[in-house]
Structures are given as structure tokens and as C-alpha cells.
Design brief:
The protein is an alpha/beta fold. It folds into two domains: 259 residues, Rossmann fold; 36 residues, no CATH class. A five-stranded parallel sheet has the order 4-5-8-3-9, sandwiched between helices. A four-stranded mixed sheet has the order 2-1-10-11, with helices on one face. A two-stranded antiparallel ribbon has the order 6-7. Helix 10 runs antiparallel to helix 11. The radius of gyration is 23 Å and the shape is globular.
Length: 404
């Protein structure tokens, strides 16, 4: 699979350069993408305009790799938001406690209008109605971070239609509403803001997204890699204290968050005329490539990748200008950050194409995949059965596989 080139990292804003610097190869890419997903929900009052609509920097990231391949390294990225999360939880719980104490003094037992605990980091194992409520209570958005995608998949299996609709709408900050007979429940979220960072194996992806054509698939930023099949020494001396590096970066993110939360008006991130021209030219070229090479359904992925690139520009621009961000009401993305965002998207388009093309076969066994790899583009059933027999299957099992 395609990796990010080294000079992409050289040109990152300092805080991202610092957290990715200790890593190499695909681990470096995983840290960058998971950090971008986490930081995307740490930018309150940052907006942009895309197709005439207000957008926020929030990203949906999913990393696909075999079991025990090291993708759990994204857990370091969670540290970037820990101080923001704990600060919001502590403050909201204190406000809730104060409200309830005041009610007790006045002998008012109705606590329904007291503030609720607000979560910046939402657990993946959550019901649809609870997620609606969490997004409604959240002031500047929340993030779901899970290093095991099946945690989220199990939630999807319970109420897939409602959860899929929620995630599709939240990606574009479209109004959400949920009405249920139980307890006469009604929840309305006017402008949902949600980021997602997930890792999982290929066979965990299909239960999560179900289909390439349902709209949820195209909202995710995909990165896929295969294990190098080498055993890493767990006792090797480590020259970096990874946790400390992310804690220091987390302090910086927290300070930036507090400043952005208090600005008097939203800060818009814009592109220069030259950047817009380049953007339209390149994505038109991508569209021509899709028209010739890929299925028409991939167009949705391509077009949303344009929005994702703009969101990357927003994130890079804020991080680049975080030390004086409160003095500004509008910032134009630098050419350096714009080019970096484009080069990242160029790689991610490759990964997205690979996942899209192979999606239907993601949950087949390794043996079945090996059989498929031996087959030519066109073949007779007898040839398939011969190759299938060579892999250890009886004729009956081989014939049943022809129906897959």
C-alpha cells in the first residue's frame, strides 16, 4: 500500500510534526491520521464554506489492517484530547451538582432541567438515543475513538438504519431529530458535530458500513495496510517516551481549545483564488479518471474527498496559526498547508479506491481470497473447481462458492 512521503511530515504544523517524528513507516501514517481525526474536534468556532454551506473541520477516519498488526498505536492520539475531555466533564458535573443542590434547598425534586455531564470523547458502545443526547448536550462536538471497530459494529447491529442516518447527517452537520414512544422521548440536534477515529480488520468493516452505495461509506477517510509479517522485539530499548510527547502536545491543544472557545465570533478558514483554481482543476482530473477507470458509485467518495481535503486545510491552518488565532476573524490557508493537504489526499484516494474495489470480498477467508487471486479475469467453472480442489475443497464446496 501507498505511504505518505517523508517531506509531507517535514511541512506539517509543529504540533503534528512533533507527535509523528518518533515513528516510521505506516506507524507514522497512522499517528498522523488518527491525530488529525482527534484534533478535528478540538477546534471550536472554526468554520469554512463549501458549496455555500457552513462546515466544521470534523473528520471520519478508519484504518484497516490485519489482527495484531500494530494499528492499536492510535491510542496515543487519544492523549491529545484527554485534558480537554476531562476539563469539560469536570466542569459539567460540577454545574449539574450545583443545580441539584439548589433544587434540594428549594425542595424542588425535578432535576430534568439541570445540566448533564458532557462528554468530549464518546464511547463506541452506545445506543442511538444516547448518542443523539450526547451530541445535543455537546457544545462544540464530540469524538468516538475505538481501536476495535467491532465495538461500534455491535452497536450498529442493533439499530443500523438509525445509526447510519445519524452518522451520514452528522458528517454534514444536518439537523437530527429522534422521536420515540418510550417516555415520550424527543431529541433534536440542530447542528451536530462529530468526529470518528476507528481501526479494525477487513472483516470488521463490512458489518460497520454494510454497502459501498449507502452514503456512509463515502464519508470515511480510509487507510489500509498489510502486516510486514516480522516479529518486533517487545523488549527493545525505546529512545522516546511516547506518552510524554503526546501529553505535551495535548497541553498545547488544550490551551488552543480554551482560547478558541472564548472568541467572540467564528473564525473562517478560506482558500486563495489560486488554490481554488488548482483544487477545481485537480478534482476535475480525478473525476475524469473515475469515469474511465472506476465504477460510477465511486464518484460520491471522490466528491466527499474534496470536502475532506478542505477540512485538512482548515486543521493545518489553525494549528499553524494557533499562537495568535484569537486576533483573527478569517485566515487564508498557506500554500504550504494547501499543498500538504493535497498530497495527503492524493495518497488517501489510492487507499479509498483499493477499499472500494475490494469491499465485496472483504469478509472472505484467506483461502478463498487465494483462490480468487489464482483465477484469470475470465474463466470456466471447471477451471475454478480445479483450482478450488487444489486448495483442499471438495467438489460440492467448490460449486457452492461459485454462487458467492
Amino acid at each position: 500500500m501507498k505511504n505518505f512521503e517523508n517531506d509531507i511530515y517535514t511541512n506539517l504544523p509543529p504540533v503534528l510534526r512533533e507527535v509523528t517524528e518518533p515513528f516510521e513507516g505506516y506507524e507514522k501514517d497512522l499517528i498522523l491520521l488518527s491525530s488529525l481525526g482527534v484534533v478535528s474536534v478540538c477546534l471550536p468556532n472554526i468554520t469554512g464554506c463549501y458549496f455555500g454551506k457552513k462546515v466544521y473541520p470534523n473528520l471520519y477516519v478508519i484504518i484497516i489492517a490485519p489482527p495484531a498488526s500494530g494499528k492499536g498505536i492510535i491510542d496515543f492520539s487519544r492523549i491529545l484530547i484527554e485534558k480537554v475531555h476531562s476539563s469539560i466533564v469536570i466542569q459539567s458535573m460540577a454545574e449539574s451538582k450545583s443545580c441539584k443542590e439548589e433544587k434540594k434547598k428549594s425542595k424542588d425534586k425535578d432535576y430534568s432541567d439541570c445540566p448533564k455531564a458532557i462528554l468530549k470523547v464518546i464511547p463506541g458502545n452506545i445506543s442511538v438515543s444516547n448518542l443523539y443526547q450526547r451530541l445535543n448536550d455537546s457544545k462544540h462536538g464530540s469524538v468516538i475513538i475505538e481501536s476495535k471497530a467491532d465495538t461500534v459494529s455491535s452497536m450498529f447491529n442493533q439499530e443500523w438504519g438509525n445509526m447510519s442516518e445519524l452518522l451520514r447527517k452528522a458528517f454534514h452537520h444536518e439537523k437530527l431529530s429522534l422521536s420515540r414512544k418510550t417516555n415520550d422521548e424527543y431529541i433534536e440536534v440542530n447542528e451536530p458535530i462529530l468526529s470518528i477515529v476507528l481501526t479494525g480488520t477487513a472483516d470488521q468493516l463490512k458489518p460497520l458500513l454494510r454497502s459501498r452505495e449507502n452514503g456512509l461509506f463515502s464519508r470515511f477517510l480510509f487507510y489500509s495496510f498489510q502486516d510486514t509479517l516480522t516479529f518486533n522485539d517487545p523488549f527493545a530499548s525505546v529512545t522516546y517516551d511516547y506518552t510524554r510527547i503526546f501529553q505535551v502536545a495535548g497541553e498545547s491543544i488544550y490551551y488552543m481549545y480554551m482560547i478558541l472557545e472564548c472568541v467572540s465570533e467564528e473564525i473562517e478558514i478560506t482558500l486563495s483564488d489560486k488554490q481554488k483554481e488548482f483544487f477545481n482543476e485537480k478534482f476535475s482530473e480525478f473525476q475524469e479518471k473515475v469515469n474511465k477507470k472506476l465504477e460510477q458509485e465511486f464518484t460520491a467518495n471522490l466528491r466527499r474527498m474534496g470536502l475532506i481535503m478542505y477540512k485538512l486545510c482548515m486543521i493545518f491552518t489553525v494549528l499553524r496559526n494557533k499562537d495568535h488565532i484569537s486576533e483573527l476573524t478569517s485566515i487564508t490557508c498557506s500554500d504550504q498547508d494547501f499543498e500538504n493537504a493535497f498530497r495527503i489526499i492524493n495518497v488517501l484516494l489510492f487507499h479509498s479506491e483499493e477499499v472500494f474495489t475490494n469491499f465485496e470480498s472483504l469478509n472472505i477467508s484467506d483461502t478463498d481470497r487465494a483462490i480468487l487471486n489464482k483465477l484469470p479475469d475470465e474463466f470456466e467453472s471447471s477451471e475454478f473447481i480445479r483450482i478450488c480442489n487444489e486448495s483442499g475443497y471438495a467438489d460440492r464446496s467448490c460449486r457452492s462458492r461459485l454462487k458467492i
